[in-house]
Each structure stands twice: as structure tokens, then as C-alpha cells.
Predict the structure.
Amino acid sequence: MKINNIDFGKYPLFLAPMEDVTDIGFRLLCKRYGASMVYTEFVSAEALVRSIKSTVSKLTISDSERPVGIQIYGRDVDSMVEAAKIVEQAKPDLIDINFGCPVKKVAGKGAGAGMLQNVPLMLEITKAVVEAVNVPVTVKTRLGWNSEKLIITDLAEQLQDCGIQALTIHGRTRAQMYTGEADWTLIGEVKRNPRIHIPIIGNGDITTPEQAKRAFDDYGVDAVMIGRATFGHPWIFKEIRDYIDGKEPDESMDFNWKLDVLEEQLRINVERIDEYRGILHTRRHLAASPIFKGIPDFRQTRIAMLRANTTEELTGILAECRKRLG
């Protein structure tokens, strides 16, 4: 699979862009363990144009994580074009346009998945951004606004006509938010459309190696994008890659090995930002990580993780977990 001149090989696995999740420390770990492509947290076009410091900081990327995409969202042509030009200066491998975020503060204001209710404007923004920059432009969106408006099959062709070089489809409507099950049948229908010639990337409910392989085999997608299942689980890409390649599970990746990775993530974030914000970026991964499932009555420990404010406090909690499961 290729996007422009980037060759991802066969069965590529992408890390989904997620706010307050895909910071550079986490992206680097996911890249190390087999992510073919990573994305920054999504960036508000309006905030970027206004040079809001916290937003501009999200444009920081490292050569070690390439190929890397920067995702932007907004609701008008001018700010999206200006933001795309600013993003281009950060030298990402591609710019992705978010037409899929369902949360109220984004979609409710007409951006993200809100654009599914204004397709002419969506297409106008897409075409303008494609024409404004010299890096590949891609789009991420959903099946439609709700179950009565499943527009993705026609929309995919329209977006392709705007000049995008790949399309990621999350198999839910905006109305579903993140509830229910992702519907991959329409993703497969888009991929099988003989008029579609750009790569189609499938997204939604991929939590196991078996599900990822099924997405490739049954729906023919060019790549699989993984989101929430990566929380506290950056090695999921290696698990999926090994399974697809027919390898046995890596027995060296035991509880202690995984806890070492999570502690490294904590150190990376504290050193990269500062102790307080580094912990904020890490503790949701720790609390969500599947490696702690075997600990009895883990709820109180999870609460303690989410309340920890110092590195010493958090590493102490992890040391106790190591004693109980390691």
C-alpha cells in the first residue's frame, strides 16, 4: 500500500489520532512496536491560526516517528487553508483532515463529524486544502450523520475527486458516537467500488490480532487504524503483526516487560514536558492498560493511579502492582 511516495508494505497498521492520547512519547512507543503510521493529536485550525501555544506545541514531530501525519479540523475554508499552510511548515509526511470527531464541542459547532451535515462545505474545504499545500492530504470520516443518512459510499467518491490521497473510514455514524458495534460492511463496499482508486483505511473496534486480520481478509482494506485499544497497550501493533505473519506469541512480553514499557512512557513524558503534565499524559494509559486485569480488586488501585501527582507516587503504585503480579 502506498500514499503518494510512502510505501507501507502489506497489511499496514496505523495509530489513530486521538486528543490527549497520541503525544510524541506515545507515538514513538507505538512506532517502536510496529505501527506503520502514527498521527498527532488533532489540531484546531482556528487555534492554530491564532497561534495558541498549547495547539502549536502539538505540531512538534520527530524524525524517529516517521511517517507521521498531522490532523487538523475546522469549519470554514479560510482558517483550514491557513492552518494547513502552517502545518506544512512542520514537515509532516501528510496532512489529515478530521471530518469524523463526534464530540459535541467539535461536531456540535459544525466541525469534525458535523461536516457530515454540510457535504458541500466539506468538499470545498477538502479541495481548498489539497490545492494549498504540497504534501499529501488525506481525510478521516464516518459512515454518515445517523443510520438514516449513510452517505459514505457516495461521499468517498466525492472526496477522492477533491484530490485526497487516502480515506480513513470509522465504521460508525456520528449519532453512535463510540457506542454499539462498528459496521465494516460499508467500509468494504467503499473498498470494492471499482471507481475508488485511493487507499481505504478501516477503523473501529479493532482490539485483537484476529479482528485486524479479519478486517484485511473480509473487507479488503488497505490498512487498519487502531484507536482506543492502544491505551496502555502500545505493543498491540507487534501482537497483530506477529499474528498476521504467522508467528507464535512472543513469550518474552510478560507482565514485567509490559510494565517496563509503561514506566518508560512515564519517564519519556516527564522528561519531555514536566512532572505534572507528563503524569497527566501517562496515567490514563496506565489506568486503561489491559495488563492489570489479573489484579484482584484493582478498582482502588486504578483510582490511585488517576489521582497520583508525582512520579514517586505513581512509580510506587506500579511497584506494588509488580509485587502482586510480576
The longest strand covers residues 68-73.
